[in-house]
Amino acid sequence: MIFQSIPESVIILYLGLASIGVRSRFRRVFPAAVLSAAISWLVRGLPLPFGIHTVIGVMIITGIYCTLFRIHLIKSVTASLFAIGCLISTEALILPVVQKLTGFTNVKDIWAEPVLRVVLAVPEMVFLGLIAYLMLKYNISFEKLTGENRFPVREKAKR
Hints:
This protein is 72% helix and 0% strand. By secondary structure, the protein is mainly α. The protein has a domain at 5-86 and 128-146.
């Protein structure tokens, strides 16, 4: 969890925040990422049908954005869906390449090996981290692209 889930949560939170034009310091994002990773780890352990974990993950991240970052619900949902959508898309693009390079054909075999799981997550985390970094550096967000800001972030969110 420490080597894969927490870094993944940090990147996902930053990616979502960047998508709605919110800049936040690491000291604020890291505790939220630890909370997100811990809750996600608990949820992944539940015997739920395929896809339900993802829906719950979106709700967890949305809740974190709303409560800890004090972001409006609509923006929180937008940020969560964008971030999780990027994660799913990146996994769908990178996983077949990783499977071909490693010889593992079954995803369950990859997830069963903790070290392999961490190592194979590195390319997608680097890619998503780069996207978040570039969005923040060049101030790219849905608001900048559309020119609208219907739900401004509350003042305390930028601490």
